[in-house]
Amino acid sequence: MGTPSDRAPLAERVEELLAGGGPLTIVAAGDPVLRRGTEPYDGQLGPALLARFVEALRSTMRAAPGVGLAAPQVGVELRIAVIEDPAPVPEEVRLARGRVPQPFRVLVNPVYEPVGGARAAFFEGCLSVPGWQAVVARAAEVRLTGQDEHGHALDEVFTGWPARIVQHETDHLDGVLYLDRAESRSLSSNQAVTERWAQPTPEEAARALGFELP
């Protein structure tokens, strides 16, 4: 499925994108759409088309599978993202990473700011950078503001892994990939992470690969 023409009006491009049905194609790193940033959502799609687009984001995220997906990752430069994390992880991982289940959420025009100065570093991946992971130090707690898909205000504090997810997805809306914030020496293939760095925390990887943790 090709990417809709950048010259077409936004709603028309989204209609074209959805016409194929099924999960959408996820844009890979190197496509300029992931770097241009997004425009705030202000009714450009209308309620019905927005609902269809949100459902497409959800089905695409689940099919990937992933725990979040931002509109630019399917070629749409709107400030919209979705998150969902069933968190099927062992108890030791849950405790170390603060990874707890998150219901499906739609984030419209989200903005985050750190709460306090604590930071946490863990391996992180991205559906737009398939096959690779790297350690990223992020704020351990953030305040997220914005709206949901119905225009209701969001003002919520996230901690642990949910805080990491909302930072990662909101960064996408600003043209930022997780690699921009990563420890470059930690970059590892998914196979290497599985075989060598599957521990709940990245201390062993930091010692072996030669990078610092906060």
TrEMBL record:
Belongs to the polypeptide deformylase family. The active site is at residue 169. Its cofactor is Fe(2+). It comes from Streptomyces africanus. Pfam families: Pep_deformylase. HAMAP family: Pep_deformylase. Keywords: Hydrolase, Iron, Metal-binding, Protein biosynthesis. One of its GO terms (molecular function) is peptide deformylase activity. Its EC number is 3.5.1.88. Fe cation binds at residues 126, 168, 172. Binds 1 Fe(2+) ion. It comes from the Bacteria. It catalyses: N-terminal N-formyl-L-methionyl-[peptide] + H2O = N-terminal L-methionyl-[peptide] + formate. The lineage of its organism: Bacteria, Bacillati, Actinomycetota, Actinomycetes, Kitasatosporales. This is Peptide deformylase.
